[in-house]
Amino acid sequence: MTLSKLSNTARSAIHRFVFGSFLATAVLAGSGAAYAASGAAETQAPRQDKDARREHRPKDPARLIKRLDKNGDGKLAVAELPEKAQKRLGKADTNKDGTLSAEELKAHAEQHKKARAAKQQARFARSDKNGDGFLTRDEVGDKRWERVKAADANRDNRVTDDELRAARPARKQPAAR
Q1: CA distances (Å), origin 83, targets 87, 90, 117
Q2: Cα-flanking dihedrals φ and ψ of residue 46, to 5°?
Q3: What is the 3-state secondary structure (H, E, C) of the chain?
Q4: Is the full-model pTM beyond 0.85?
Q5: Which of 17, 22, 100, 171 is deepest in the core (most CB within 10 A)?
Q6: Which positions ≥6 away from 90 have C-beta within 8 Å?
Q7: Count of other CB atoms within 10 angstroms of residue 58
Q8: Would the pLDDT of 176 be above 60?
Q9: What tens digit of pLDDT does each residue of 33-53 get?
Q10: More confidently predicted of 46 and 28
Q11: Bridge partners of 77?
């Protein structure tokens, strides 16, 4: 049967169907290309400072100094820092000259990293009631075990401090979009 033998209403319906199908295909193809482009952008290397916050690594001190140097003299005065940062980073000024060097910031970050690791080890030791180097359900309780057991890489129902440390970066990753 040819298109000319159909009624005007039937022909019109077929034309609308074909045009609608074409339009839907074009929209889907366009949105697929946009999705692929956005996915490609998200798989590129994330910015340094976002990684630093996520993994609690110190930011590049030179970039930090350049970004916060309000008067543009190439030095980061403690007074140029935001109020909360003055309290935290003011301690990094070991030579008490009122400015923060990249070396002072690096040393402060390393000291902070070591203190944080010591706190985490102490927390693990407090939870490890029998001192065997493992956390088990009976030591941490059912509610906390539900969170801790995700770190049990070898599925032996015992979690070591190393397993907890290894699982921590994966837990802090932002949710996929």
Answers
A1: 7, 10, 26
A2: -70, 160
A3: CCHHHCCHHHHHHHHHHHHHHHHHHHHHHHHHHHHHHHHHHHCCCCCHHHHHHHHCCCCCHHHHHHHHCCCCCCCEEHHHCCHHHHHHHHHHCCCCCCEECHHHHHHHHHHHHHHHHHHHHHHHHHHCCCCCCCECHHHHCHHHHHHHHHHCCCCCCCECHHHHHHHHHHHHCCCCC
A4: no
A5: 100
A6: 78, 81
A7: 14
A8: no
A9: 666 665 544 445 445 555 555
A10: 28
A11: 99
The amino acid at residue 152 is D
φ, ψ of residue 135 in degrees (nearest 5): -105, 135
Cα 3 to Cα 14: distance, rounded to the nearest angstrom = 9
